Amino acid sequence: MRSIRPSSTARRGGRARRTSPVLAAVALASTLALTATACGPGDTDASAEASATAAADDGKLKIPEDIKDRLKEHGIDLDKWKDGAWRDWSKDDWLREAQDFVNPIIEDLWDPDRMRDAEEPDQEVDESDISGDQGVTDPTPEPVQAEVVAPSYHANAPTAGKVFFDSPEGTMVCSATVVQDPANPGKSNMVWTAGHCVHAGKKGGWYRNIAFVPSYNDAGRPAKELETATKEEIAPYGVWWGDWAQTSDQWIEQGGSTGGDGAPYDFAVIHVTPEKGGDGKSLEETVGSALPVDFGAPAVPEVEEVTAIGYPAAPPYDGQTLYRCQDEPGRLSLGESDPTMYRIGCSMTAGSSGGGWVATGSDGKPALVSNTSIGPVTSGWLAGPRLGDEAKGVYDAVSEKFAGQ
Fold it and tell me: Is pTM beyond 0.70 here?
């Protein structure tokens, strides 16, 4: 079973304990624009460093000394970072504490080639990890074939997009959804995705160069055509860098790359800012839409249908096309002490992780009620967390942090 990603159970005195919904946050995620040459899979670190250094020598890189000093307090030398130090994933230096994360903008790092070549997070768990005698698990749903979302994606799924990030394994990609910000109605810069799309969990730390692209490949061009596509064609609504992100304490303390551990808490919120400075409009104003998030959605037996949406990237998909699945959800339990998850039949594969699940909310209107987290190796179904108090705490904290901005 492939986790389209997961987290374990912390224990004290031999008994499982529920970790508090205290929020794990990305701090000092600077909105500085670093003038540097983007590196594709075939580029060398040396050439990137030379380009970045040349840009600095040309006087294009103007960074206030006080901001440099603040970042150094958190273990980041910004000059070294823009010269390629972000590629250092040594275990000792891979900072996992919230206050030690930085995500400064590196202009044009996410060029068309780098976005197109990003790989899906590959996590696998054994079918035996799903125990029918723990909690409540309904029979495995029948597979549902994912349907292509008709282009333009902006016209038919305006809140959907891709999250790109760098990990020790390379350049990675997930799916994500623009969501409303209660503190900034009509002007949200908030994106909902999976926890494993921003943080590696208990054995790692925050990922780097996290960015969101709404309506990626909006015209639905085939992969061959994208080889010559411009950045504007691939990202018509811009590239939005994460300047803050939060996930659950449970994910950070328990999350792992295999086993399905922590999937019930596998959610995250990213606050974003435009790479190029933009025209003063928020993400919601730019794309024209944002979904509400329902933390009081009906129990599984009362939900008639859920629609999952995302960009599946593992075979037979290539990650360049937006898909959706609709199905009546069932229940999936990974442990008696954890919340029961939603599960639907769906052929989407890794890469769709983090993508939003939309259903009729408690007020009778469409709302985001979950996100893709895990699925089997052979595909056929997906599971996502139910969004309760922990998820609401993450969401509210990000909203409150940027209230009035």
Answer: yes
